[in-house]
Amino acid sequence: MTQINNNHFLSRCPLCSSSEIYLVGALNYRYNVKFSTHIINFDNIPQLWTCKNCYSGFTQNAITQTDAETLYSTGNGTLRWSGTKFEDDKPKEVSSFFNTFLKNGMKVMDIGCNTGEFLDFVKDKKCIPYGIELSKDSREVVLDKGYKCYSDFTNIDEVFDVITAFDLFEHLYQPNSLINFCKKKLKKEGLLIIFTGNIGSINAKLAKNKWWYTNYPEHVLFASRKYYSQLDNFSISTYLKTYASQSHEALHNNSSFLNTIKNILQGKFTGNPALFKDHHLIALKHMP
Ligand SMILES: [Zn+2]
């Protein structure tokens, strides 16, 4: 077990830099939580905060970026995150969206590619797959599949038709470095596609600081639709509300509406099973 001094505390919104930020509430977390494959414990109580200007949310008393990167890069992502096929993991409407535009020969970069599940999907569509992955163990699996895979944003000479980030944005301490990378490495009218939890969803609004997706300490950033819509040099070309995965969708379909309402009234609602779709896919067209 590793004891962590989780003292990453911000005076401004990490997305729009507004100082109009306020506390939503303390975050629920268990002792001896898992971060990647490490068991860790904390000095401070984590909190969920929100921004009055861009409506995004973020974690205070997060673990520091340095600690997070060390834990990810030394953790074994191949054990922690399942290698389920992309089209069996993500909701059908997400795969269908990619089927509408992925074409022969397109260069597709997946940031945070884990063991290459989306890259396999991309290869089936006759596109050229590229990945970035921080975890050494996961990267080796991707390289063994024969795909190009980098450890970070540096030393990449290619320019891409599509850049994707699945289940990644919520982990970012410096979202601007990802956005700036995409501005440099996306072709004109190329697409940046982000898939993450939706803090503007009814689930998140009802669950507040009890929202399951805050998932302390791994998730630290919950960007709103407004944030994505105001990014320089990008415009939203597709906005799709969806579920975290097919299993979350199944959980929603099999849940008891009455139980959910009871939980909401008793202040116990965590947003899981979801009452409505609680994730979003945002496709941003690059307009340099
Ligand atoms: Zn903000």
TrEMBL record:
Pfam families per the UniProt record, alphabetical: Methyltransf_23
The keyword Transferase is assigned to this record: yes
InterPro entries assigned: SAM-dependent_MTases_sf
Record has Transcription as a keyword: no
Biological processes annotated in GO: methylation
Keywords for this protein: Methyltransferase, Transferase
One Gene Ontology term of the molecular function aspect: methyltransferase activity
Superkingdom field: Bacteria
Protein name, UniProt field: Methyltransferase domain-containing protein
